[in-house]
Amino acid sequence: MSWARAIRASLDLLDKTSRMRLGRSWDDPALEQALPQVKAGRLQPGLELISQARGDDELRALRVEQLANAGASHTDALRLLAADNADGQLWLGAALIKQAWAIRGGSYTAYVGEERFVRFHEVLSSAAAPLQQAAQALPDDPVPWEQLQWHAIGMVSGRAELNRVWAELTARDPHLYRGHYTRTQALCAKWYGSDREVLAFARQVAASARPGDAVTAMVPLAHFEVVWSRVHETEQPAQEVLEAYFGSSEVADSLMEAGRRMPDILPWSAASPMPGRRYARVRRHLGLS
User: Fold this and answer.
1) How confident is the model at residue 242 (pLDDT cuts 50, 70, 90)?
2) Which of 56, 97, 106, 235 has its CA 20 to 30 A from that of 91?
3) Any idea what the Cα angle at residue 128 is, between residues 155 and 71, rounded to 5°?
4) Angle at the Cα of 280 from the Cα atoms of 153 and 74, rounded to 5 degrees
5) HSE (CB half, 13 Å, CA atoms) of 182?
6) What is the dihedral of CA 70, 88, 162, 55, to 10 degrees?
7) For 40-67, what is each residue's pLDDT tens digit?
């Protein structure tokens, strides 16, 4: 298999897990209607959507993520709205995390200035209390623990704490897509793991996944994390690095095996959407769309 075909195969698998359409990566009309309102500062519709999603972990995780993005500039108002409301506390904590990472930016640590780091940690640290309150108030809910993974990554809480949060999350939902995505990030060499560890994790997840489970997408995601770290670490042209990496028979076989575990049509609906915007971003990075 050529390197280009290997890349396309992995992107096809990611597309299957996201039901991706141009400009839209999930099917939740109520969420789409609420997002502009939340961005404009009308927060109640967002809180209602998060509350309504209790018991549907995938839907709840998706709504919290998207509404956190939309509400990240309204955290003061969210504090008033949240009060003693567990769903509001979850939303507030997630929005503070989004706000903090927006301050930090997506650059490697070496390129983030001291002033931004100070502000980043200041905002991020404030997310812990509302997320912990949400987790305590809703002991069966995995979504606060998913958000606490990002908190632990950013606060440099250490591998032991990340492992503890992961154990709490998977005890509540061992299949949560966003939980696995964040764990994959945590195990990358740029954070708390290594290329070998993140690839082993992705293969183990895919091997033990239920038929058609979207967590199988951790395999191509892990490969992309590994190869992009190599692109950043070398002076070689990106295409040469990609060609060498995806031209490997071991990588191609790994992608093909993951692809075989996914059916062509997945039985997902508005009641169980999967996020996929990052896959469109991967396509743009590779020049495939």
Assistant:
1) confident
2) 106
3) 100
4) 55
5) 26
6) -100
7) 999 999 999 999 999 999 999 999 999 9
